[in-house]
Design brief:
This protein is an alpha/beta fold and about 525 residues long. The protein has 17 helices and 20 strands. The structure holds ligand NA7. Ligand NA7 binds near residues 181 and 205.
């Protein structure tokens, strides 16, 4: 097998599949490596009960093949994980993508060789490959973080992290199940498990403001309408801040009457999808006073839906404002706590001391459990990079270069790591995005840059330090205009299971349209800020 390529790709999720297709279509020799046994990335790994889109299905699929858009039919407005994984497989079959991926192959190191101007990848199983360009398609949430409770290994029942869920069905019927974590994943898991469980105990550290998803099947008439509206759907995404079909309302919460606010919020709350978060008044994400009003509305909705006022109080967020963390979308989440067989434990009142063979020992009691589900999140954005030993020019390690927070140019390249492009990397708009929309932009931009290099015989591209510092400054200026930095979340690189990690913003809060414009301006200016030779 030829192990030298023009382009090496790590990851066979939505980024890796599209990057591979573009390279191959343009006549670059390309090969991809994937730790899983098939394509799908996040949808391959996250098989937990209740996993589904919070993006409207038809706004999520790839936009680059009219034929694919015509052929594929989503069954629900917000498709569940098995369907999305089938979609990824369908795309791989249709475009014969699997033949250029090596599966079950986890890359351990990537090393830059200055003399040959090439990257060498070495996998955990010893597989090696060399290439001029390296494109990382690792996904922002692909390194799960199980908590380090003492005694975890002693547990005699089944224990799963949601992101490494087994491929076989797991039954909860008659079982005593614990779910730890109440982020977007925990909320979906809890709601699904509660439907069949014997007894469910939810361990919550920080409550979130959750909002109704409003999912339902797509009717045949809607299917036809979607098919003829794709251009319009993608055009709407292209101009919205997060590349969703929802964009903020031009009105300000502080400028309208209390009645107008209430009417608008009642409409948005029950509307399908992220409208209540991303289609809200323009100032709720930037003005603390406006945010207080929106947060009060969301708190009231929780109190209305949970019958026991003591339980409701536990579920009401008090330490952060609405929308400053990722809003979990739900389908009956709050009503789960009205079930007699569900108990909510506030970890601030009753912390977990250790896991014991028969269950979970808290500060007050030992709770017998058959299945523990860790919905405890990810080492966001940086985690999947840290896991691979990236050694750049002069032997510097990416992990060390990013130790105090990443410095990148457009979230696509880091000084000292020539010829390496980071799709959905830190400080890239894709972190705050209806992600396939931003993936396509990232991949297309990087691809155009490689074509540009090929036409000019350029074999080395490296972001310069001043340009990357400028970009990084801009990233922080943008987030400081919002309320995001006022609270801890994975956007802010905070994960209490990883106390060694510095708090640092990991996404781009200036919005996808602004990001795209910046990328295009840099390209139009001969890829300003990138040293090319
Ligand atoms: P998140 O949003 O990071 O949520 C993780 C949850 O797990 C959150 O409620 C955490 O509480 C909780 N957690 C983490 N560690 C612990 C320990 N040690 N003890 C108790 N509770 C813990 O991850 P998700 O998987 O839900 O969602 C990630 C993204 O995936 C989401 O934004 C979507 O875009 C898709 P905390 O809030 O830290 O107090």
């Amino acid at each position: 097998m030829n192990t030298t390529y023009d382009v090496l790709i790590i990851g066979a999720g939505l980024s890796g599949m599209y990057q591979l297709k573009r390279m191959r279509d343009l006549g670059f020799t390309v090969h991809g490596f994937e730790a899983g046994s098939d394509v799908g990335g996040v949808w391959y790994w996250n098989r937990y009960p209740g996993a589904r889109f919070d993006s409207e299905s038809y706004s999520y699929g790839y936009s680059w093949s009219k034929e694919l858009l015509e052929e594929w039919e989503w069954s629900e407005h917000f498709a569940a994980q098995p369907e999305t994984l089938r979609y990824c497989g369908y795309v791989a079959d249709k475009f014969d993508l699997r033949r250029d991926f090596t599966f079950n192959c986890r890359i351990a190191s990537a090393t830059w060789n200055e003399a040959t101007r090439q990257w060498t990848l070495i996998a955990e199983d010893g597989t090696t490959a060399t290439g001029t360009w390296l494109v990382t398609c690792l996904g922002p949430l692909s390194e799960p973080t199980p908590p380090s409770f003492p005694g975890r290994e002693s547990f005699k029942g089944d224990a799963f992290h949601t992101a490494t869920w087994p491929h076989h069905p797991v039954s909860f019927t008659g079982k005593r199940v614990a779910v730890i974590g109440t982020g977007a994943t925990g909320v979906q898991t809890i709601t699904e498990v509660a439907k069949t469980v014997g007894h469910l105990t939810v361990f919550q550290r920080t409550p979130n403001y959750c909002a109704p998803l409003g999912n339902r099947p797509i009717t045949p008439e809607e299917q036809q309408q979607i098919k003829v509206s794709y251009d319009q759907i993608f055009a709407t995404c292209a101009v919205s801040t997060g590349s969703f079909i929802h964009n903020s309302d031009p009105r300000l919460a502080l400028e309208v009457s209390a009645e107008e606010r209430e009417t608008f919020w009642e409409k948005k709350y029950y509307e399908p999808g992220f409208g209540i978060w991303l289609g809200n008044f323009a100032d709720i994400g930037t003005n603390a006073e406006a945010n207080v009003l929106a947060s009060a509305y969301m708190r009231r909705k929780i109190r209305e839906r949970v019958k026991d006022p003591k339980v409701a109080e536990k579920l009401v967020p008090k330490n952060h404002g609405f929308g400053t963390r990722r809003v979990p979308m739900e389908s009956g989440y709050y009503e789960v706590y009205n079930q007699a067989n569900v108990e909510l434990i506030d970890l601030h009142e009753e912390p977990i001391l250790r896991i014991v063979p028969q269950g979970i020992q808290t500060s007050r009691r030992t709770i017998p459990i058959d299945i523990i589900i860790y919905a405890t999140g990810f080492d966001a954005v940086r985690g999947s990079f840290d896991r691979i030993r990236f050694e750049g020019a002069g032997g510097q390690l990416l992990k060390e270069a990013w130790a105090d927070g990443p410095t990148t140019l457009l979230g696509l390249q880091t000084p000292g790591f020539p010829n390496m492009f980071t799709i959905v990397g830190p400080h890239n708009a894709a972190g705050f995005c209806n992600i396939p929309r931003c993936i396509e932009q990232n991949v297309d931009w990087v691809t155009e840059f490689m074509i540009h290099a090929r036409e000019r015989g350029t074999t080395r591209i490296e972001a310069t330090v001043p340009a990357a510092e400028d970009w990084t400054r801009h990233v922080y200026e943008m987030v400081d205009l919002t309320l995001i930095a006022t609270t801890d979340s994975w956007f802010m690189g905070v994960n209490q299971n990883l106390p060694e990690k510095k708090r640092t913003f990991l996404a781009y809060a200036g919005g996808s349209p602004r990001y795209r414009k910046k990328c295009d301006a840099i390209a139009a200016d001969g890829y300003r800020g990138f040293a090319q030779s």
